[in-house]
Amino acid sequence: MKVIAYSFNGVQAIESNSEFVAEALAAAPGKKFICLCEAGGTMRQTVNFPQGKPSRSLQAAYKLLAEGGAAPGDVVHLERGLYGWYQADLPIVGDYTPDLGRTPMAAADPTLQNVSQTVGYEAKEGDKAAAPAPAKKNCAGRAAAAGGRGARGACRTPPAQQWRGMERLGALQGHSRGPASLTGDPLWWVLPSGDSDYAAALRLRAQHREAFSRFDGLWGSVGLCVAFLSLRLVFNNAFKTLTRARCSSKERQQLLDKIEEEIWVTLGGSLLLVAGWQCLASVSGYCGVHDTAGCYAGWPLIPVEPNVHKYFNVELGWYFHLMLKHALGLGLADTGAMGAHHLATVALIVTSYLLNVHLVGLLVFGVLNLSSPLLHLSKLASNLEMRRAKTGLFAAFAAVFFVTRVLVFPYVVLKGAVHDAPAGIRAITQYFWPCVCWLGCNALLLVLCGMQFVWFKAVLRVLRAALKATNKELEAEMASADPAGTGAKAHA
After folding, report:
1. How far apart are alpha carbons 104 and 53 in whole angstroms?
2. pTM (2 d.p.)
3. Helix axes 250-282, 220-243, angle to 10 degrees
4. By 3-state DSSP, what share of the chain in percent is helix, strand and coil, each rounded to 5?
């Protein structure tokens, strides 16, 4: 029935070769594989294929990696396939003419430009015109590339986003191959073992565990927390040594404590901001505010790039240090709301990393961190009695806060986490525990989202006070509107 239905719609049916992986490994033991098919497909986003374009050769590459245990560096894919090779005027053994009768691309949109809807090739400017009649093809090459007998390959077509995840995995060839242990993978406890696609993905994650999220991947944050606390101790001692002559009263000491806190938090927050946006720049080709759906593409095979892995440990270590600094006598106390904010942020860091949605977490942190340095600079200017600078910096903070936390952040939460995640991760809609994890992450994001609106209301009060209140009243309003919570209480 499938063959008849495909034929009625102009689609040539193909069979799956269930022995492809075994045959390929037996034919070329210890060798590297080049996978190609007629049109190639792509894992890149393009104007014509915004989600990438699946193909038989990409499916063959995936099977060699997921089921054959091949290392990422041992499997490469010829983009645009034999058609692209032909257009590049590269040598071909035998005759070749683009196959006008091959399977057209799935779900072709007639509004797309520069695409031959009857062929499935992605045409490019300068391509040679296809000859009217097909000649013989290099069928041996197609059979090897498509992973099957003749023109029959690995025909099942998972979502194109999966291949984009595999492309990023292939780029991480520096990762060592860890032991094939499934229980050390957080997703092993979430994904159902009876799903063949997810079972294959879990095996691949186990074979290349260093490239993916794992339970022991965030232990570095503990050492970094100790490092931050140690640096804070050194910084405090150096600051007290430099300001000892100015400490003439208890009130003066409290003011110096606030200045010390603001300098430290401004420096740390600025460094985290720069590091976070450097990581976002490295993944901007497939994930960002402009493409929140791309942050889920390839799940659960989204590799954690080395710089992103380091950033998550640094961010988590920084928040651990913020939660401990007052108890250890190294900083001012945070408000209760800020303590809840720290807990929610730590939970979001850990869950987004472990559940392989770290790109969403990276995007959230990048957006939220944008306004914080301006607030601390404004408070520092206030403590130093630089009134004009204080007012200008706080106005800039309010503007950035409104754009990033009131407008952009809810958009990321509602569109990305609520809409794009279920659309890009089928486990959410099909299985219980993935759905529970998704709901839990959304709850954390909504808590953070609600806090932004509460704080922005306080920010508006400060702006009104700046227009008509006295300086003392303005200071009181600024303390109540502080999303960072610093300076609210003195040292215990």
Report:
1. 12
2. 0.61
3. 140
4. 60, 0, 40
